[in-house]
Every structure is written in C-alpha cells, then in structure tokens.
Design brief:
Largest sheet: 2 strands, antiparallel
Number of domains: 1
CATH superfamily: Rhodopsin 7-helix transmembrane proteins
Helix content: 55-70%
Keywords: Membrane, Transmembrane, Transmembrane helix
Distance between the termini: 83 Å
Order of helices and strands: HHHHHHEEHHHHHEEH
CATH topology: Rhopdopsin 7-helix transmembrane proteins
Oligomer: single chain
Radius of gyration: 24 Å
CATH class: Mainly Alpha
Strand content: under 5%
Number of helices: 12
C-alpha cells in the first residue's frame, strides 16, 4: 500500500475542501447566472467554459466529502479511481482552459489594433477552443483509468492526503509535462498581447501622433493576471513532483477558482448587476438650455 507522502494536517484538509467547494458550489454558479441572465453583460464562450471547467474540478475534488471518506476508512476502489482519473487531468485541463481564454484575448487585441475583423471561421474556431480542454481531460482520464484498473493496489487516498491518487511516476510526469507545455504557450501569448498593448500606448504618446485605437484594458489585464496565476500554480505542481511532501502546491492550486471569482467577478458590470436595486439614472437633455439632468426626483428638484 502506498504511504502518505503529503505532510498535511486536519486544518489544511478543511482549507483544501473549502477552497474547492465554495466556488464550485456557490461562487462560480452565481457568477455564471449573473452573466447568462443579464442582458447587459457579454462574455466570450471561452470565459464561460473556464467557469464551467472549474466547477467540474471543484466538484471532483469534493467527491470524498459526498461519500464521507475524507478521513477514516479508505473509499471504494471505484470511487477512488474515478476521482484520481479526473484530477489527474487537471493540469492539462486547467492549463488549456486558461490558454484558450488568453488566446481569445490575444486575437481580440490584435484585431482591434489592426482595425480588421478576426480572421477565419469564427464559429468553428470558437467550438474548437471550447472542446479542446475536454479532449485533453478525456485523454488523461482514460490513461489514468487504464493504469489504475490494471494496478488497483496503487490507487489510494493515503498517498496524496487531500484526494485519491495513483502511485505511478511515469503517468504523473507525463501529465505534468503536458500541463507545463500549455502553460508555456499561455505565457508566450500573454507576452505578445502585452507587447502589442505597450506599442499601442507608446505610439499614442508620440508628439503629433494620429488618433490610435482605444482599447479597454481592464479585461485584458485581468486575463493576463489570471494566466500568470495559472502559470505559477502549475509551476508549483511541477515542483511537487520533486518535493511531494509539501501540501502547498495542492492548496495553491485549490485557490484557483477563488482567484477566478476575485479577478473576473469584481468587474464593474458584474458589480452593477449584483447591485440590481441601484438603478442607473436616465439622463434627459434639455433642448433649450443644452444641459443634461437626471430623470425622476432629482430632475424635478432641478426644475424647481
């Protein structure tokens, strides 16, 4: 039986479960509901896909809670292998989710700067960007399930402490490498995007420069920040292969869904939708004076 290689404590286990459960069972569903139900909020499908993906990851990380097997007796081999198969797909899955979001931002910024519509069939490309992470997840699930089914003795909860895993260094190493490759591509796309934005900003500062394209930087910078977090988290995941006894990588990775909510759930349009009881005033133009006044009580007060 594989021994426990994670030096975790009960409080760290609780923290790991909370970081996985609150965003996947509450935070992200609320964020998705706001986006999908609001007529004023528009997000690209790659962002919706990101939220759905982290809900899947959070629910998968909570399977032992549902079964009441986070501590005490070992969970069934079937449940343990099921959880391990999904979570072993996490590096490639999460990295691709982030990469597709950053790729979409790169294409959007480039199209805005070049003042040309994005090239290629949009529907096909969008669907490819949505499906690709799930293809990677399915491949990892299949590979892990095959290895675990052939060697049931290496499937256990004890080894990784927080969740079920498989004691197979070749499998873990291969999956980690795939995740690292996708993270590297994400960083390259981020650097290219930031370079384009910087050149645009610098061109606008030149004396006598003509009007350049105006780009709202809030969302691109938020996407860049999240991409960097994923890169750091996956880097820690790779380090855990060398120093597997530390619980820090698993805890940092578990924080990813909360980061999604903090970065993207605090955008102005999201906050305005949350504060639905605060109506934005309707501005009325006075044709005679040329002044603009708010409608309602304030308008009546202004008229007096």
């Amino acid at each position: 039986m594989p021994v426990n290689i994670i030096n975790g404590t009960q409080s760290q286990l609780v923290l790991f479960l909370v970081l996985n459960m609150w965003p996947s069972h509450f935070g992200l569903p609320v964020l998705l509901a706001i986006i999908l139900l609001s007529k004023r909020i528009k997000r690209h499908p790659t962002f919706i896909n990101l939220c759905v993906g982290f809900i899947i990851i959070g629910v998968s990380s909570s399977l032992l809670v549902y079964a009441g097997r986070t501590t005490g007796p070992q969970p069934s081999k079937m449940l343990c292998l099921f959880q391990a198969s999904i979570l072993y797909g996490y590096p490639a899955f999460a990295s691709l989710l982030a990469m597709m979001l950053v790729l979409q931002m790169f294409l959007t910024v480039r199209a805005a700067i070049m003042r040309t519509p994005t090239q290629g069939p949009q529907t096909v490309r969008t669907w490819a960007m949505i499906i690709a992470p799930y293809v990677a997840l399915a491949i990892c699930i299949l590979a892990t399930a095959v290895v675990g089914a052939e060697n049931p003795d290496i499937v256990t909860r004890d080894r990784r402490f927080f969740y079920c895993s498989i004691d197979s260094d070749p499998l873990s190493g291969t999956i980690a490498v795939f995740g690292a490759v996708f993270c590297l591509v994400t960083v390259v796309l981020e650097v290219m995007t930031l370079t384009m934005i910087y050149k645009l900003w610098k061109a606008g500062k030149q004396p006598g420069a003509k009007a350049v394209v105006s780009i709202e930087l809030s969302l691109p910078l938020r996407v860049m920040a999240f991409g960097m977090f994923v890169f750091v988290a996956m880097g820690l995941s790779l380090l855990s292969v060398k120093a597997p006894e530390s619980p820090v990588p698993d805890l940092v990775i578990a924080f990813a869904a909360t980061i999604v909510i903090l970065i993207f759930g605090t955008q102005p349009d999201i906050l305005r939708a949350l504060c639905f009881w605060r109506r934005e005033p309707i501005l009325i133009l006075n044709a005679h004076s040329g002044t603009v006044t708010p409608s309602g009580d304030k308008a009546r007060e202004a008229a007096v």
